[in-house]
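Reviewer comment 2.1 asked that we show a complete input and output for one of the modelled complexes. We chose the WTA case, as it is the one discussed in the main text.
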Amino acid sequence: MAEEQHLITDQRRYYPDAEAARDTWIGDYATAYEEYRNSPDKFWEGIANDLHWTRKWDRVLEWNNPDARWFIGAKGNITYNCLDRNVFNGRRNKVALIWKGEGEENERIYTYRQLHAAVCKFANGLKSLGVGKGDRVCIYLPMVPEQVIAMLACARIGAVHTVVFGGFGSAAIHARIVGSGAKVVVTADHSVRRGKTIPLKHLVEEAIIDAPTVEYVVVLRRETEHPIELHREMEVDFDELMASGSRRCPCEEMDAEDPLFILYTSGSTGAPKGIVHTFGGYMVGAYYTTKYVFDVKEQDTYWCSADPGWITGHTYVVYGPLMLGTTVLVSETTPDYPDAGNYWDMIEEYGVNIFYTAPTAIRMFIKMGDEWPDRYDLSSLRVLGSVGEPLNPEAWEWFYRVIGNSKLPIVDTWWQTETGMHMVTTMIGEPMKPGFAGKSIPGVVVDVVNGEGEPAPPGTVGFLAVREPWPAMMRTVLDNRELYEKYWNTIGNIYKAGDLAIKDEDGYIMVIGRSDDLIIVSGHNIGTAEVESALVSHKAVAEAAVIGKPDPLKGNIIKAFVTLKVGHEPSERLKKELIYHVRITLGPIAMPSEIEFADTLPKTRSGKIMRRVLKARELGMDPGDLSTLEE
Ligand code: WTA
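Response of the prediction step:
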């Protein structure tokens, strides 16, 4: 282990073991970055040429800020690259997907041939329900192979999937179904978590009330001995639908700029935003970053613990690794069940080489104690990764020392649903600084800037921003052009990410947290507005304001301040009822941990709730400028 103390900045640096950094796809970071800067189009064209297209592009990029078109005129299908190409090029019988559920020997394995067949069958099944190119399909499934199959089946026929994380409640599902105009919803009878089955389908039944676009609900019935009954007017059995389809299904030819998927992310103002990604640029970005950031090699077994219901799962469970022909582990299990050794047991058992997880999980591992990882052989690991929120230096050091055996590279990757792909990290081989995600990867230009878009002086807090377009960037916010433009016109015509960050003298970026009204709870993006409207929909609540409160384990917890309508009195009973109300409307991930009843909420003269005043009071900090505060 090489380590040096930098006295001026008091920053530690670590160099990954020479072995880990040898023969990487990226080679020398600085050289690769310069190649990109010298000729961005040539750089991206070089990557795109690795992939299969039915027609190549006429031009790489057309950029009329804020509108980008990438690989203009190019055509193809992402599932050809994920499936057919592997089947035809020597990976036919290679394992594509290993699924591990709770309990002993509860696994399912798909080779590339089998995954290809399953996707084609389901794609044909969807077609038989009248789903075609451009139609939207909402996928609300637990982490089972069918979730991956359904996503790929949509992509195969040009249908646009919108995956909803399995932990959301009916109001959240409803908003996403209605927002996307889904024609079909794919769900399951239940999910499994810590030994319990959690019913799902009834949430969809509630969610499709007043959702007139929905024609069919496809239900995966995991319980086969006493299967739940289907309402046959509308509901179709997943397996029956699959069995009816042929295992041949040609790829729909997609234009590079045809939409591939919509993924909702929490908005800072009211409703969640439907982030729209298109086929060509997203495919190139996902392929490039998976290969180069994780340095994926042919023999690797790769595990990204994210749910495909989030962008991390889209890009780094499904599309990226399958395009590389990798063996991907997907698991419905949790880190602490049946005991705190579960993840390490899986890494040992499957010989995982690349392990990509989240700071909230890492902090949980730390709390559970070193004795758990110490019991297992983790020597297969080669690359560690983190995503979702800042990986604080203590957690970084623990991950490096205990899981990385004080030698493995850690890629702390900063990116967003909107960016579609990794943007900032420390490429393997570069010195690593705990607490700093790293630098822009070759292909992107991320900076820390002031309100005018000028570089913030090193060491000072500024806005995280992107100066140049990149292929996997979102193309728009569904039905909300104005919101899309806001990303690009708030600070000097560069992309405003909504995060605060600091850049040091070496150009390393430390992400501090959100600058807007999003709270990241256990790595999940929760919009204050969504929780507030859920609270206000309760009959006792007049007004609500929600803040994030730092928490050693979850990163943040949600605290809600609530004023009550006349005739309702504060009580412990009511607190519980409100928490329960949020749980059933938005889902357990959005539940407030604390509720405080207040007589009034601090507001601006124009009537906007000043959350930062509540937050400052809660944390004992200076609330800053209060000139707009109403008496
Ligand atoms: C945060 C997840 C610090 C950030 C891929 C960003 C991070 C938001 C990191 C996007 C990181 C993500 N370090 N913060 N490595 N990665 N974030 O859309 O606030 O679910 O804007 O995408 O997560 O969350 P999203």
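The pocket of WTA is lined by residues 265, 310-312, 387-390, 412-417, 437, 497-499, 511, 514, 520, 525 (CB under 6 Å). We note this here for comparison with the apo prediction described in Section 3.2.
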